[in-house]
Amino acid sequence: MKHVISLLVDNEPSVLSRVSGLFSGRGFNIESLNVAETLDPTVSRMTLVTFGNDQIIEQIIKQLNKLVNAIKVVDLTGSDYVDREMALIKVNAKAASRAEVLRIVDIFRGQVVDVSSTSYTLEITGNDRKIQAVIDLLSPIGIMEIVRTGKVAIARHKKTGAKTEKEQEENSE
Amino acid sequence: MKKSGAEILIESLRHEGVDTVFGYPGGAVLNIYDTLMNYSEELRHVLVRHEQGAVHMADGYARSSGKVGVCIVTSGPGATNTITGLATAYMDSTPLVVIAGQVPTLLIGNDAFQEADTVGITRPCTKHNFLVKDVETLASTIKQAFHIARTGRPGPVVVDLPKDIIAERAEFSYPSKIKLRGYNPTYQGHAGQIKKAFKLLAQAQKPMIYAGGGVILSNAHKELLALAQKMSIPVTNTLMGLGGFPGNHPLFLGMLGMHGTFKANMGITHCDVLLAVGARFDYRVTGKVESFSPHSRKIHIDIDPTSIAKSVPVDIPIVGDVKNVLKELLKNLEEEPPQDYGKSHASWLKQLGEWDQMSPLSYKATGQCLKPQFVIQKIQEVTDEVLDGDVIIATEVGQNQMWTAQFFTFKNPRTLLTSGGLGTMGFGLPAAIGAQVAFPDKTIFDIAGDGSIQMNIQEMATAMQYNLPVKVAILNNQCLGMVRQWQQLFCDHRYSQTLFEAGPDFVKLAEAYGAVGLRATKPDEVEPVIRQALSIRKPVIMDFWVDRNECVYPMVPAGAALTEMLLV
Known about the structure:
Chain A has 173 residues and is an alpha+beta fold. Chain A has helices at residues 15-26, 54-66, 98-107, 128-138, 165-172; strands at residues 2-10, 32-37, 43-51, 70-75, 81-92, 111-115, 119-126, 143-148, 152-155. In chain A, 23% of the residues are buried. The longest helix of chain B has 16 residues, at 372-387. By secondary structure, chain B is α/β, with parallel strands linked by helices. The A-B interface holds A 9-10, 13-14, 17-18, 21, 25, 55, 58-59, 62-63, 65-71 and B 119-120, 123-124, 127-128, 131, 148, 180-183, 304-306, 309-310, 313.
């Protein structure tokens, strides 16, 4: 099963290699990995998508926690969170298809961020299903290049008075 | 007053209570070695003959004394030569701090002379590592290194120290405290889990304790003994755990696993509650995981959460320091109304006794042919008589190691120094030397094979230079015995590259180093040789010509269940 793991790490050189080395050295998989500084410049946030059975995921979480530079490790899977990915897609846009590409961008609330006489570069943000849908629709027209950020994710904040989806589920059980 | 990086380093080591370092000089650490001369009163430096030897010596020093072992090596090949030693220490959780020289900061990444990416190379075989980029952070980095090495599950830490940092000057004040926001080992076990564990243990009919090296690392042997005795629970040890429970105790079942005793392996397969203490369910212990202790409910105490449920699922995990958790279990026991555990476990203990009688540890003695197990038994007999058993035994890796584990009775913690996890040939001699440095007045043996001993034989010169009278007992079978055994059993007697057709005369080799060489080729020569070795205050090599065809039994073939033992 796919898991989204969010971790806070020291913002230092070699921390990324400690995390990625842990995965390669133990034969775990990384599907995507995203790192950037947080509001505290000494701390970075990593969002890591991985997959494995429960035992493997348990080991991954424990091993990540064991890293001296890992400050906090949270498996978001199974909790209430929002995730997004951005894709930059360079697509063929000759006269016959230019309008169609723009229509697709419009439907998915994307943006054109670069234009040439034969191509558009599009920015699409969303969950992976949305990005896959755009890719499926643009593929017949001709995708020249695609760059994806990998997933970033954040836990939903508890809303005042309102119950989270998870709590509603629990109550209904 | 400002101090140089080298002075800060050495002052910091002194603040950590270090009085001995093992090392080898070189260009990148020239300033450290120059400064060392000014501290020769406070800090003893042991000059080794190979950096691998330095790390194993620091390892043997640490395992035998419980202190942190410290090494200094130069950049590039100096650092890469430590890798096997670091990996050995990492697998067996030995606290080490290795200071590695590095090329000057400006040259890093330049493919400079004697440059290696030490932090990159050592990352997977250390608990943590550091590259010091500013002399101002040197003292706090050393503090962190020692803190990480000795706390939680101990392990080796590397500090990579560029040459310019060693030369630069800064104000020195050693931090009294440090805080690492991502590193907080759990020492206290969860009270609720401990209570549950106690209840499970208390109602068990066929309980068993499986104790590993964590008992020794946490100095919990007394608590383990108390718990086992008060609750009449039989105990088996892993290789790393030997000495953590008295080997001559009636509740002791011997080692378990691939070369474990019949009773230990049968016991663990049939017990109904298994208390794992500071052990990690290695596959050399479990055999086929699916068949490991199939009828038991399992309690697992370990300070390292990653060791729990890694290969074998457990019912009650307890993360915490073994000593603390065992103390809490004992407290639970005291609060309960007394129960006659001896009575309720009587039939279980009787069953274990029957298994022991069915197939005790043994070997076939044949006439004038010298058996390796006999040599080990004689070492035990003579040292028990002459030294009242006060002896530390290092081993190499292979048959010599397994026979020592089986036939030597370890009664006290920190008396067996062996590379359990990594299985590093060449570990024993330098480890024995390191232990001798820690305990100059004790007798230290290295039980070796003729293969392993040649992997770090150069350290005989170190033993000579510092007058460290280690006793090396070579079980010389002129082959790589354990691999030969596997080839005999699993490769249809096809001995591919395991038979030595040439080798040194170990008596002459000892003499070449200025040490003493002795030889025994027949059973009745063994005891006089051991007695003579003990009477000499010099390093001694004893060359025992043993039966080449002897195998280690019992043996569980790799991947088989523990009950599928090949017996003598």
